[in-house]
Amino acid sequence: MVSLIKRRELRINTNTSTYKGLWQELKPPAPIPSRRCHHSASMVNSKLVIYGGQDITVGVFNDLWLLNIDNINPQNEHWYNIIATGEYPGPLCRHSAVVYNGEIYIYGGTDGDNENSYLYRLNLESLIWTKYQGPSPGVDSHSAIVHNDLMVIFGGYQGGSVVNNLYIQSLSNFIWTKKELNLQPSPRANHRGVLHNGSMWIYGGRSSDSYYLDELWKLNLDDWNWNLIEYTGISPGVVSAHSACVCGGVMLVFGGVRDMLKETNEMFSYDFASNNWVLVQSEIDIEDPISDKDKSDYVNVPAKCKNSFVSKKSLVAVDYPWHSFSGSDMKKPKHRRNRSHRNAEEFVKKVYHGPPAVNKGRVRGKIPHSRDGHTANVYEDTMVIFGGDRHQMAFNDVYFYTITEKILKGN
To answer: Is 117 within the bounds of a domain?
Structure first.
């Protein structure tokens, strides 16, 4: 568990039948969100709420989407493009989001030029955004959890540098403080943090000297002490921009990137009680029709903007209420594309999506492509994966993974 180790060789599993029965891909009716990565995803009851994100072919998004999840009747699952008013965050990616008292709080991130130092609260009844001053200067690619009324923020990029700052943001009086501790993790970004049993746990990420990390740290939120965990078992190894979520007494880690253009779809579980990692799913080499030349041509297309981000205004025609899910004739949002990537969307659609689905609902046995910059949330006994990218080509797919007792027990 040394942060400077090189990426281990990946395990390729040729027998995928064990995993196929647990995965389902959603085939929803239109409208659906644009492809994106480094967005935020918040689970509020049975609603998955997506904000922002980026696609190199489009830029940074400022749209708000809601997916109603129905494990019993998945044919009823639909996306809704939600209109909210007030002091909305604007285009954001690489931000964090937590849920407190049924409201969503978004902090940090970047619009491609500047890091955001504001905290935004979305009331899901009124659909009104409210803006507060957050930890300043702003950070992106950090981790955040909520404990009691405190939003705990660690690491990320700040002013172009990787940091290990720890900020505490009160969600009751909106006062923030910077916590100075003697022992703490080294600076890192694109790690992932979860809450379990009164502690914040972070895994992986990328260091200030661009090494990928395999460290597991625990922050006790009572005495504010960090501990580097000496774990056992088969861990994810060095990984960044993965997803992490908690179900029962385990943390599930899926996907991520191990070095440049080497994403994975491996999955691991960490049992907090036994301090042991278990390999749940080896890397599955899904047939990829993209040739090396295609990848090179796509990745090396010159951008006409001054950086890889283009701010995007979401143009939506219909305000859809939070409480109603009876169907909609919303118009599909229009997008302003970077002209140097004008053919990229059709290319990606052809490669990764295939023909439109005839039957709506979930398709069993569909396994996600390797990816990073995606999100993972838990609803009931299901992990929900959305978005991410591979070789700088973003996804807008949704996958459900059934979390079994076998996984929870680490067998």
So the answer is: yes
